[in-house]
Design brief:
The structure is a homodimer. Chain A is α+β, with helices and mostly antiparallel strands. The first copy, chain A, contains 7 helices and 11 strands.
Chain lengths: 252, 252
DNA sequence: TAATTCACTTGATGCAAATCAATGCACATT
DNA sequence: AATGTGCATTGATTTGCATCAAGTGAATTA
């Protein structure tokens, strides 16, 4: 499962773009929401040195599978991924979606084996961060250590939010909450919070939210009828943000 | 919210017992499943030095509340605690139960604020571990760092299991799975895996599993009728372990 | 001893979402 | 143009669990 590539390959006349795997942490436009956050520039250089950048992965390819040896965590550079667990009776449970700047794979640390699988929802590029190097480096850089602890803790709190959503909220509330989450994560990356393309299928949405495809589809139709959204397949436009928040039943 | 006590208080003619707060990491019978795991004895001493032991907390007392400043994580020494989130509309979602040897509070790291509340289900004692000291120490002790990363990762994987349970499993499967989880955690502490007392109420069980009290009660009655269990209020005896596993729909 | 409370159980009914089934639509293949 | 395939939508029916309501038993108090 090695995705390392030679860094020296293809170095000239190459404009940075979404999938560009030559961009370094120092000049990556995601570094304010990724691991380098709060590092000094010479610390960033050291972090940069341990990071392996991969060729873009095509839609549907796996980054790792449940049970694989755990070696690295991954930062999404472009595209979107989903993480999912397979139940004993063979069904899938999507446990998270990962957008550019976000880190996945931390669930593998506990048993040195990936506890979930991760695959791309569209063409995507990732930075591979060997965990043993990251651990060594974070023992030397308090800021890095703190940031990584925070990232793991963030994963825990995100999971708890999902637990609550699944346990306490209606289909309408779940779908509205997911749309708001995606909207907020787009805003963090300076993209539109009201007009975006869902990178995942209805099946994945339903799977993540504990609903069937049909229910997801019905909720979206209803939201469109209520003029909260304009839905065109994967293209979503939020027309009435307070209305959506109200449907999600959240305070903020 | 300080629960520190003077270590020198009450030091003589004191036999160690479940709630004894004088026991140190080095001679704590839980140290094989708690933080000290895999530390050398002089490292254990250093860890021991930063740990604050508290008087036992009475049933229903809070260790921390959602929104409190995050200072420490806690190891359960005796008793049981629950962690829960409060939803925007004021309802509770229990996110976990914590038995002796287990660590809670790690969800506070990400925002420096506790993301959930924790209260005791019965008289309990905890060890308070100031996080800043733990972070400093773990930068110096690779084994401690690794172990703490693993604990956090474990929290993530446990949450993912709960997510899957809530999203994909029936009421029967959820209740059976919780019983198996408690059974396994008892076994880890060398207690009976087949005969134990549930420390939490039916309300808490239902809340944790996304079910109403009535449903929990019915499932337990059904399991008794099927002769999988013997239920006497909180006292549980598992009569047919393969049967319970079968009901939970899990492989192991 | 009776009364109050609390945690739990049991039964009857209703509803939200699953399931089953059909159809529509975009896009690729031939 | 015809055919297939994957994804999304919509409608009809079923069902598992919530809800509502009442009842039990043990512990606590009067």
């Amino acid at each position: 499962m090695s995705i390392y590539i030679s860094k020296s390959a293809q170095d000239d006349g190459f404009k940075p773009c979404a999938h560009d795997y030559q961009v370094h942490c120092g000049n990556c436009r995601l570094n304010s929401i990724c691991l380098p956050l709060s590092l000094e520039s010479d610390d960033i250089q050291q972090l940069d040195d341990i990071i392996q950048r991969s060729k873009p992965l095509k839609k549907g390819q796996h980054l790792y599978r449940e049970g694989d040896d755990f070696q690295s965590v991954y930062a999404v550079r472009s595209g979107t991924l989903k993480a999912y667990k397979t139940t004993d009776d063979g069904r899938e449970q999507v446990t998270g979606f990962y957008f550019p700047g976000e880190i996945l794979g931390m669930d593998g640390i506990s048993k040195n084996t990936h506890a979930s699988s991760a695959s791309t929802l569209e063409t995507s590029a990732v930075c591979e961060i060997p965990f043993s190097s990251l651990a060594k480096l974070s023992a030397l850089m308090p800021n890095l250590q703190r940031h990584f602890f925070q990232l793991m803790s963030r994963e825990i709190t995100d999971d708890q939010v999902l637990i609550t959503l699944l346990s306490k909220n209606s289909a309408d509330e779940r779908v509205a909450a997911l749309l708001l989450s995606i909207s907020a994560r787009n805003a963090r990356r300076k993209l539109s919070s009201t007009h975006f393309r869902l990178p995942m299928s209805r099946v994945d949405i339903g799977n993540y939210l504990g609903l069937t495809v049909e229910t997801v589809s019905r909720v979206l139709s209803r939201m469109q009828k209520m003029e909260l959204l304009c839905v065109d397949n994967k293209e979503i436009e939020i027309l009435d943000m307070p209305g959506v928040r109200n449907m999600a039943n959240v305070a903020s």
